[in-house]
Amino acid sequence: MVRIGAMASPKSLLKSLLDRRELLAGLGAAAMTPIWPTISSAQGRTSLALQAKASRFSPQTRQPPVDVWSLAAPEVRLNRGDTLDIAFANDLPVPALPAFRGLDGSPAAEPLLARPAVAPGGRETLQLPLRHAGTAFCDLGLLGDDQVRPSRGLPLIVHESEPVAVDRDEVFLIEEWRLRADRTLVAPGTDPKDAESFHTINGIFSTDPTAIPVRANERLRFRFINAGPRSAVAVKLEALEVRVMAIDGQPAEPFPARNGAVVLAPGSRVDAFIDVTGPAGKRCNMLLHDGKQARLVGQWVISSDPPVRPAALPPAPPLPSNGLPAQLDLKNAQRIDLVLGEPQTDWVSPASFVASASPAFAAKAGHTVVLALANRADRATVFHLHGHHFRLLDRLDDGWKPFWLDTLAVEPGQTARIAFLAEHAGRYLLESVAADWSAPRLVRFYSVG
Q: Half-sphere exposure of residue 356, counting CA atoms within 13 Å on the CB side?
């Protein structure tokens, strides 16, 4: 468990990612105002225009804006079962390819395999069936290494088919940056040298956050997204009870956050419920820890307005199921050993990827697959599985943690075992990247058929 007040080291911060049931939870962020307008859907379909373009934003108060690449679109709010019709325009001077993290079973939209990079000035259309409710996001990071500028992420929220009893539903997008003295940003996959490192939440870096009023007995749903490309972060919400409800977009068996803190690997998401209790004037701090130091990034104060209800709500039941299997047949599973990262020549950069190459493995449709993920590197390595969510298995392979993941950090010299049901036919990417800003993003793919 990361204890933010104790100033956890980067090693212990990443190590704690492996036992999320004990540490996942808690947080808060920079602003309570939503960062998106609602986009309505008609007859189960929604059209969304995405534009990759050069832009500027001002992450630091009283400092000039910086140049960045971004997806020009709001965060979209959709419903499970909808189809998202996307029209993408690349107005960047380099090839671009949006990738969607957390949306299972869409082989026709899989980047590099079904969709090549879009040339400068090019256009593409695609359809995404939204099979599952949950917190996902889209970004341009797959081809982001060694670019002129880094890019920003775009949250993607898919709502449950059944109502969820919360008073507020907020997104906190955490992004990581390296800023040179000349105020140019360093793209990942590049040596940052002496560039300043910092994180923003919803595009803001503040050393003196404004206290946000909340009302007694409110229930808040906070969706935390680590859209940073390389580093794990820990976030702690003090003085309020935090209950983890979903991880990487999939419902979990609800559990309280230990010490109100959660650790997020790059690309990970956590949905947490926070019940506001206490007298008027009570203040609650939120701290973000980057592995080196903690800083205050948000503050809440219970207002003197009447409570939302006479008493706090009882503990929330699990979120509605997305239909993932309750059991996995480990006894008859197809088992594959997969060595992660740089030492293996089978892993290549996205720019060098060839869709006609042989898959890392071919899974049998309808069968359970167990992957043994071995990290032989001297740094923690983050693994991301496209197309399916997986269970993190117990050490003895006799069970699994009570949540689903699509992203996992594996400590150096360690092997983690994961299992998933290969239910979506097609070809899907595997991603591996060391937890270091200058490390390259590497890819392979697997097939289901």
A: 0
Give CA–CA dist 360/351, Å, rounded.
18
6 SS3 class: helix
Tokens of 14: 């990443």
Alpha-carbon distances, residue 421 vs 248, 362, 364 (angstroms): 17, 13, 9
Q: Are 38 and 118 in contact (CB under 8 A)?
A: no
pTM over 0.85: yes
What integer pLDDT is reported at residue 341 of this predicted model? 76
Structure confidence by residue, pLDDT tens digits, 46-98? 889 999 999 998 888 778 999 999 998 865 668 999 999 999 999 999 999 99
Three-state DSSP class for residue 83 = strand
Q: Give the type of residue at 275.
A: D
Identity (one letter) of the amino acid at 72? A
Asked if residues 13 and 291 have their Cβ atoms less than 8 Å apart, the reply is yes
Q: How many residues does the chain have?
A: 449
392 and 268 Cβ atoms separated by less than 8 Å: no
Task: Report H helices in 66-213.
Answer: none
Q: From start to end of 188-315, where are the E strands?
A: 196-201, 211-214, 219-226, 233-237, 241-247, 250-256, 261-264, 269-275, 283-289, 294-302
